[in-house]
Amino acid sequence: MALNLNDHCLFGFVQCFISRASKSCHHSVESEDGKTFFLKIHAPWEVLATYADVLKIKVPFKVNDIPENREIPVGWLFTPLRLPDHVMHPDPDYFTSSFDSNKHDFFLIEDKETFFPNSTRNRIVYYILSRCPYNKEDRLNKDKRGIKRLLNNGTYTSAFPLHDCRYWVKSRDPNCESERYSLYRYWARFFRFYKEQPLNLVRKYYGEKIGIYFAWLGFYTEMLFYAAVVGLICFIYGVATYDNTVWTKEICDKDIGGEIVMCPLCDKKCGFWKLNSTCNSTWQSHLFDNTATVFFAIFMGIWVTLFLEFWKRRQARLGYEWDLVDFEEEQQRLQLRPEYETKCTSRRLNRVTQMEPYFPVTSKCARLCLSGATVLFWISLIIASIIGVIAYRLAVFAALASVMKDSPTNKLELVGSLITPQLATSVTASCINFVIIMLLNFLYERVAIWITDMEVPKTHVEYENKLTVKMFLFQFVNYYSSCFYVAFFKGKFVGYPGKYTYMFHISNLRNEECDPGGCLIELTTQLVIVMTGKQVWGNIQEALLPWLKNWWSSRNARSHPESLYSRWEQDYDLQNFSQFGLFYEYLEMVIQFGFITLFVASFPLAPLLALMNNILEVRVDAWKLTTQFRRPVAAKAHSIGAWDEILNLIAVFSVVTNAFIVAFTSDMIPRLVYFYAYHPGTELTMQGYVNNSLSVFKISQISTESTPDPGENPAWYRDYRYPPGHEHEYSHTMQFWHILAAKMAFIIIMEHVVFVVKFFVAWLIPDVPSDVQARVKRERYLVQEYLHNYEVDKLKKQLNQKGEEGQCICPEIAATVKHEVLSECLT
């Protein structure tokens, strides 16, 4: 079914299904293939006016006379970024009020055909169709109503509003609006990436819900620019100090690192190795593990607060400009899901709506329990897959180390370059983990929709919130669990030579240690592969797949001239923009937001990668929505919904994760403790840090099950333990406890500092701009004043008309008029 917005008609497929509607618009249009039929259903002015009243749609009653005062002092600098005014602001600014079908002359109705914008008209018609019974004889049966049920049982193949004409060329037909062409020309092309978005035109064409998404995505991309610049500066600092780090020089020095023999990294198959073999990974680790890391982690904690607070202000301004200030209550009250009304067999008294459908508590609890058990099962499946990847890492590392032991370079020869077993294992495990993530995503999307449908939420908002929570919880565990493992578990429970810890107590699965360059570089590798892979795959999936599907479905019709390839057929050949289309767009961006906030201390370039992706994402989303997808049914939304709370939770959690990354994953705290408390002599220096951070072990004391081939004796390992022969042999030294205390102190101080700044910034910045508050109050005042004057004028006309006709004036009517008006009428 397709909506023709120019004549307020709805097209459908297969056959007529609503007998009452077919009487007013009883004709069908046969398609080019001779098998598909399109049904037109007319929605006259009376129907639009009636349901605009029911839905409390706001319409203009007076031109906005409040002067704008938002000029930027150096606005001329942004001239290259601006679009023509007729594109940015397609309609004048009006004061609006909820439509009342009994007060037509109160509103600014110049032309009934264009009074309701296209997005409003298709929303009204779809609202009717989603609740209209289609069985004439059994109209009280709630199972036989709504277009969704007809789509599910195959009576109709599709239902969608039509696009405006063609997008690649402006129509010569004066009756065909060219909003789609304007969107494509000024918004949906990649070479317009530096231009502002025409959000008012997006809202007018697609509705407020899609407009809010693109407003949020654009604002998020703008804010990423500042984070990307600071992250790039921190990375440049790491490169600039590349050659000035004492500990890396000691590791690479053949007389220091070349003389230190390290304990094997696995049992039996792994041999001894020289510390200077980790020279490259140590240099690479310094690029991200330096003093700028701490600064950037604190900066991102403040940045995320500024982003959320400024978005609230931006959202409030859009809410006023798009008439969404009082929308939430209206939506909760009116938009019951047809599926809920259909499946609820019980009724109960509601003080507001009188009798309403509801689910018994026992049925609701049973559904929630089954839903919760299903979610837990799938989360357990993710954890099991992560454990499988860890087991893979342990087995492959042992195999690669065995090969490395026989290599004269102690490294793997791969495509002409030397690769360490740690790096090879980390990269391949990250790639396998990414494939598992994408596979589980594909499966769980369908499971999440199924269990949410099973819960039968009451309203559309409740449905979206439930689905959002389930999908994000799954995605959170799916995407971030491997990063959490590398950041907070890998290398932390290894034990020491002679007393190693084993996974599930299996003798050949010894818990893996961090890369000799540190776990931070491994976390960076994991983050880059998963984050970049997700973004690249997402863009391919979003852009290339719809284009290929559309190209294939329209291959026969493309040979026909435009006059024989009708608008409804062209749109029918496009991909369907499902009710979850926007949901997946939000989910993709929120997952990206988690990557650049939760683990940003390990990779300062993450915001830069996100920025480059989002510049492309805005135009890809606009292009596919304008050219590759059918026009979605317009919907209203006053905010980004449950995603707002999720972003706030991520923002708070990110402070904790980054504090722990700096404290436990990075080597920053051990270096600072050595620099200030354990440096040799009276001069503050990092000389001798490498030897200080290692402990020694007698190879002869290793158990026979773990003994490698004969090698040097003794050997070194990374830890702070007393040497053999000491009274507290192999116990932790006092330096270990000092470092642990410093780590905990750093976490507490960093968290408190960032949280205090966050809450202060949140308190300092009001959620609603003062000028918006003033405008909202001004509009409400004017609505009351104009409505009052309208009623008074209307009543005066009634009184004058009755007086001229010699009729008796009802005292109850006269008493409702102001005293001065009453006196004038009586005179």
List keywords for this structure.
827 residues, alpha+beta, 3 domains, two-stranded antiparallel ribbon, 28 helices, chloride channel activity, Anoct_dimer, Anoctamin, transmembrane
How many distinct folded domains?
3
Beta-strand percent range: 5-15%
Q: What is the rounded distance between the termini?
A: 61 Å
Structural class: alpha+beta
Average of the residue pLDDT scores: 77
How many β-strand runs?
Answer: 18
Instruction: Count up the helices.
Output: 28
* Biggest sheet, spatial arrangement of strands: 5-2-1-8
Helix content: 55-70%
> How many strands, which pairing sense, and closed or not: the largest β-sheet?
4 strands, mixed
Query: What is the radius of gyration computed over CA atoms, rounded to a whole number of angstroms?
Result: 34 Å
Family: Belongs to the anoctamin family.
Organism: Pygocentrus nattereri
Main location: membrane
GO molecular function: chloride channel activity; protein dimerization activity
What does this structure look like?
The protein has 827 residues and is of the alpha+beta class. The chain folds into three domains: 1-57 and 116-162, no CATH class; 208-670 and 745-768, no CATH class; 771-826. Helix content is 56%, strand content 7%. It has 28 helices and 18 strands. The chain has a four-stranded mixed β-sheet. β1 and β2 (9-11) form a beta hairpin. The longest helix has 45 residues, at 361-405. The chain is elongated. Residues 1-27, 408-418 and 816-827 have low confidence and may be disordered.
Concise synopsis of the structure shown:
By secondary structure, the chain is of the alpha+beta class. It has 28 helices and 18 strands.
